[in-house]
């Protein structure tokens, strides 16, 4: 659990979420203390808005640590707007799910938080999904991946951009991999030339490329499906169904 999420912060944020149900609660963690905020959103059952002066006052203290809000009735993952706001603020964000009586522990995300091990993650859209796994693997780099038992990774740490995305983006207007991977420095490579560090892209029950994984050494693949923990497994069937392989060549390529 993140250091700013002390038991007192969690308890206060959960109590606020229950009290505000069915509206979204919202608050700031400042100097290790949860500060409940008024939700100024036009539709507070579906969104939240904190007054800009409240943000400014918290930022001026130099002790603003996180933004927490509730999702009444779910879901247990960030919306596209949640993700974009977190990216824009460059500050940890968290979600508490409540039905007015029960509350979940905060689900937190943000690049300043420790990166979870790449093997054995539970799937959470936008936080621990297939793109998150690719991105975090590149962020960790070869030394830290070696500590997790992944040898022969070819890259030092590389920061791939985060992308705000909706759950089921492949059924809407977004096209995560097709729209961004070339800009992020990936170029196609033929199957006959793939090597560790290359990524595969494929569509699962979709015409869009909506799943990605990474080739490791020893003909193993690292990827994360919604119904499974992130894992290594033989490349076998995945290589046959991959629609395209790409290699990172640098964001100025």
From TrEMBL:
Gene Ontology molecular functions: cysteine-type peptidase activity; metalloexopeptidase activity; zinc ion binding
CC per GO annotation: proteasome complex
Database matches in InterPro entries: JAB_dom_prok (IPR028090), NLP_P60_dom (IPR000064), Papain-like_cys_pep_sf (IPR038765), VirAsm_ModProt (IPR051929)
Organism superkingdom: Bacteria
PROSITE patterns, sorted: NLPC_P60
Family affiliation: Belongs to the peptidase C40 family.
Name of the protein described by the UniProt record: Proteasome lid subunit RPN8/RPN11, contains Jab1/MPN metalloenzyme (JAMM) motif
Species, as recorded: Faunimonas pinastri
Higher taxonomy: Bacteria, Pseudomonadati, Pseudomonadota, Alphaproteobacteria, Hyphomicrobiales
